[in-house]
Amino acid sequence: MTAITPAKYKNQARIIKALAHPSRLLIVDELARGERSVRELTDLIGAEMPTVSRHLSVLRNAGILADDKRGLQVFYRLRVPCVLNFFQCVEAVQRENGKTAKAKSTPKLCCAV
What are the strands of the beta sheet with 65-70, ordered from one edge? Predict the structure, then answer.
């Protein structure tokens, strides 16, 4: 393993950790529809503005979001829209997990009586 590989995985883990919160996933999903102001995102999440600002900061620092200050308002957008591919992958895993759970809960007839 080269010295670059651990750094690569560490950086990837940082990005994944930035997404590892329900409010942040909601933010990313909403920004897939277009840019939003901090106020709009605060209303959507239903949390206090400092909490939402911290979530936005985590996502911005991970390189997922970009911001644009216009007057007194800050607007956010997805910096790299391909992050939505990750959502599709997670949903595929959820579907497979659902199939597995359904298969495990279905009673099996093993013998003829």
Answer: 36-37, 73-78, 65-70
